[in-house]
């Protein structure tokens, strides 16, 4: 089986020009040609293209990708192992970023009167100010933002630690339900989702079921939130969203 350059571009979601460039520099030379001289790619070529795109997604320059793939001492399993390690590290970085976004979105950055040492103690290596501008731009004119500012302005280090611990407990229990095989629409999962909604309402701003559903959708739509939740348990972002939606439907009936 062989494929045209147009077919391969469609499979891989790259441009034909990109494939031509990879051929020109010797990074991905198609294994065959048609009678008319057109490029034809084999399954082995597609495997190599997948490896190239993995490394490119991780930020490797083309020259380094070529050196990695053409290393005569490396076998395919070694490439997969290396990519798994790199992707795992990237997911962890995104998870930390998502945690910082969640701190910011729920107004943890609003009026926090902590010393630098206390901030690090509370938030770890996540910078709670990193996404403050994004939060302010997206939600700064909302009542929820203003309400959260007012509530959190007086929070102490101990308050933040207590809130973090409560949130972590909610996440752990939802992850345990996912691992147990309980459906997202089960009573147990909906109960944890309701506790999550009340936690936001108690701690930051009034969070009705409609707003809570919007948050659940964001956990799936924003890769930073998805990485954070899936870093706790793979699939947790979608499971959390589905439990939140099911809980909202339950309370609407």
Describe the structure.
With 253 residues, this protein is mainly α. It contains 13 helices and three strands, in the order E-H-H-E-E-H-H-H-H-H-H-H-H-H-H-H. The chain has helices at residues 5-12, 16-24, 43-57, 62-69, 76-105, 116-123, 132-139, 143-152, 157-180, 187-203, 209-221, 223-232, 236-252; strands at residues 3-4, 32-33, 39-41. It has a three-stranded antiparallel beta sheet. The chain starts with a strand and ends with a helix. Residues 1-71 form the HTH merR-type domain. Residues 77-104 form a coiled coil. Pfam families: MerR_1 (PF13411), TipAS (PF07739).
Brief synopsis:
The protein is mainly alpha-helical and 253 residues long. It has 13 helices and three strands.
Protein topology:
Elements (H helix, E strand, L loop, with lengths): L2 E2 H8 L3 H9 L7 E2 L5 E3 L1 H15 L4 H8 L6 H30 L10 H8 L8 H8 L3 H10 L4 H24 L6 H17 L5 H13 L1 H10 L3 H17 L1
Helix pairs in contact: 1-2, 3-4, 5-12, 9-10, 10-13, 11-12, 11-13, 12-13
Protein name: MerR family transcriptional regulator
Keywords: Activator, Coiled coil, DNA-binding, Transcription, Transcription regulation
Pfam families: MerR_1 (PF13411), TipAS (PF07739)
């Amino acid at each position: 089986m062989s494929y045209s350059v147009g077919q391969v571009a469609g499979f891989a979601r790259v441009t034909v020009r990109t494939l031509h460039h990879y051929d020109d520099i010797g990074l991905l030379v198609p294994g065959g040609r048609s009678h008319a001289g057109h490029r034809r790619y084999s399954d082995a070529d597609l495997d190599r293209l997948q490896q190239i795109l993995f490394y490119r997604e991780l930020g490797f320059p083309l020259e380094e990708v070529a050196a990695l793939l053409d290393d005569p001492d490396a076998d395919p399993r070694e490439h997969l192992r290396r990519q798994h390690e790199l992707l795992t590290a990237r997911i962890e970085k995104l998870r930390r970023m998502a945690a910082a976004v969640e701190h910011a979105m729920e107004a943890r950055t609003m009026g926090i009167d902590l010393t630098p040492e206390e901030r690090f103690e509370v938030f770890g290596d996540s910078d709670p100010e990193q996404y403050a501008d994004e939060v302010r731009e997206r939600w700064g004119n909302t009542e929820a933002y203003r309400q959260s500012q007012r509530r959190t302005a007086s929070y102490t280090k101990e308050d933040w630690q207590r809130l973090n611990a409560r949130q972590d407990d909610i996440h752990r229990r939802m992850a345990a339900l996912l691992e147990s095989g309980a459906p997202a629409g089960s009573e147990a999962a909906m109960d944890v989702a309701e506790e999550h909604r009340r936690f936001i309402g108690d701690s930051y701003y009034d969070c009705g079921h409609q707003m809570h559903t919007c948050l659940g959708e964001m956990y799936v739509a924003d890769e930073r939130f998805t990485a954070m939740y899936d870093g706790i348990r793979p699939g947790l972002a979608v499971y959390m969203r589905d439990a939140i939606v099911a809980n909202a439907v339950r309370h609407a009936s």
